[in-house]
Each structure stands twice: as C-alpha cells, then as structure tokens.
Amino acid sequence: MQSSELTHTLSFGLHIDTGSPDDLRNGCLEARRIRNEVNRLDRHGWDWDDLRSVVVDNATHVKNTSQQIVDKILGEIETYHEHKDDGWGRPYPYIDKLYPMVMNHGEGYRLFLEDEDTVRFRISAAPRNHVKGELRGSPDHFDRVRTALENDEWRVGTAEVVHKHSEWRLHVTVTHEQHHVASKNDAETIVGVDVNEDCIALTAMNRDGAMLDSVVIEYPEIKERRHEFFTKRKRMQNAGQTAFESVVQTEERDYVHDCLHKVSRQVVDWVSQFTDPVIVFEDLKDMRDSIDYGTRMNRRLHSLPFAALREMVSYKASWRGIPSDEVDPEYTSQRCPRTECQHTSRSNRQKKRFRCQECGFQDHADRKAAVCVVQNWFAVATIVSELIRR
Ligand SMILES: [Zn+2]
C-alpha cells in the first residue's frame, strides 16, 4: 500500500524588524522572472537538465533557493503533461503577479526558537540581504512549529514566502520522520463531510456507493455563544471600552477553539471505525471572490468554524494514518442524491430539510449534502481511473 510522509503546512504572518517588505517583494519578482524563463525555455524544447543549470546560474537568489523555485515550476509543467488528456490547461507562458520564493530550511531561510512565545525568522531575499523578525500565527501553528524545532522526530522542510490578502506570509512545511498516512487512492470507505455553523454531517460509503452509516454532530452552543460575545462587544464599543473588548475577543476565541477540538476528536473517532477511510471535504478556498454560490455558501464561508474545524479534523486524522481529500462543492446542497434522479434545484432545500421537488426523496439537508460530497469524489475518481486505463 502506497503511503506518504506525515507533512503539514503551517501558515504565519511576518512581523519584520530588520530589512523591509520591499526586499521580499524583490525576491518574489525574481522568482517570477525565473518562473517565466523556465516556461519559455521549456516551450523551446530545452533539455530539462540544461535548462535547470542555466536558469539557476543566472538567478540572483541564494543558489539553493533558485533550485527550489525551478523544481517547483518544472513540477507544475510535469503535472500538466500527466493530465493534459483530461483537458487541463498548460501553465501560462507568462504571469505578471508575484511568484512565491521557495526556500530550504538552513539555507534560504531559518527559524529560531527564542523563548516559549517567540519564534524568529531569517529569510534571505538575496545573498547577503536578510529580512528578519518574528512569526505571528495561531496558537495551534505555534505549538506545531515549536515541536518541529525542538523534537528530533520532526523535520522543518521547505517554506514559501507569499503575498496574500495584502500581507506577507510564510508557509512552512513540517514533516514527521516515522509517521505515514495511507494513500487516498487505496481508500475502501469514503467519508463525505458537510460543515455548517451549527453542525457537521458525515456520511460513510463503500466503493460500491452503498451507505454504511451517517451522523450529524451538532454544536449549537458555538453559534449561541458567538452571538452572546458579539452583543457584549457591541455594547462595549458603544461605551468606548476598547480595552475590555479585546479581552472578550480572546475569551471568545479560546471558547470556540476548545469546542472545535472536542468536535474534531468526535469526528475522527467516528471515522476510525471504518476500513481504510478517506475524509472528503468541500474545497471552498477559491470561492470567496470568484463565484456567487448564494447566501448559504457565503454564510458558511464567513462563519469561523469551517476552516478551523477542517484543519483540526485533517490534522488529528493524519496522526491515525487517515488521509483527507477535497472536491468541487458544486451543487452538493441542491442536488438529489438518488442516482436515477439527480434533480438539482435550490428549492429542493428548505433550511435543514431536503425534499426533492422531482421524486419526493427526503432527508436531513446536511447529511444529504455529505452524500453528494462523496458522489462528487466518485465522479473525479472515475475520470482518473479511466485515464489510467487508457
Ligand atoms: Zn430526486
């Protein structure tokens, strides 16, 4: 059975105290130049070994960083070649937005554990041009990067400097040397997940599409308490008590955080009962600005639990060797799950109740959505296996 190393990507904000954001920008501009040059030479039919050595020699980054960037770009081109029959587009020959700087720990960048609460970074935006400062991030990510720096079983791997939502961020990978996660392609049980602001619905199906079991775990208290905190903060704002306001905010964050840990443990316990499971989430990351999926989706995107809960579930699951995957969320809330019907309409859903306007099928709306998540996963798996057979 194929498996992969247990690797996590942690995301941090950068508080710079030596050097400037402009240095990072220049580093990412150089990465973009490398990216466009690699694509240009590849289209001219260059041998990849020659291409790699010429581009790395001409780049102004620390040598190891230039190598990492070239490898990332060649990886993108390789992925395109593997999937081109599936209609995947070739990477654009030229991009004009910034490209991430990819760096090796110890060469292109370095993290230092200063004390309990402080992790410092040093990024070489160019040789002898170091940008330094402190990482900013969630308590979870801090715990994990601290463990990776202190513990021999963990390795701090490559990191990328990215500019996102008008902020400079560092995405750091950490890998556990012994732990392995099962390959999602070998999964026997597919567990679809539908996350909402007051509950999470799970449906387990086997490879034949038969439902094994389902569960809806509710957490109305998170929604209620968040509403209470919101009212409390509003009152303080009106009274001008900004100092207390941030205390309330921390209290709220800690409360929600604890609840989500409890829920994610329940989810992983439930999933663990099945043979070789894979946990499938809806991929919502690019939807925020691109497509209007209606008010239900928007509410889910902007309510805190979705991203945090998903991350905690994936993290805890990977510790038990269980892989996670994601699918296109298209129509999961509107489509009838009966294979012979598939009628898709917004009016099929009335709050927590799903009732197909065509065939009359009825179910809990979120559990039904979790079934559709599994069906979307099967749809992609079928395309891939047909490609392999060809
Ligand atoms: Zn139907």
From TrEMBL:
It holds the Pfam family Cas12f1-like_TNB. Keywords: DNA-binding, Plasmid. The lineage of its organism: Archaea, Methanobacteriati, Methanobacteriota, Stenosarchaea group, Halobacteria. This is Transposase, IS605 OrfB family. Residues 306-371 form the Cas12f1-like TNB domain. One of its GO terms (molecular function) is DNA binding.
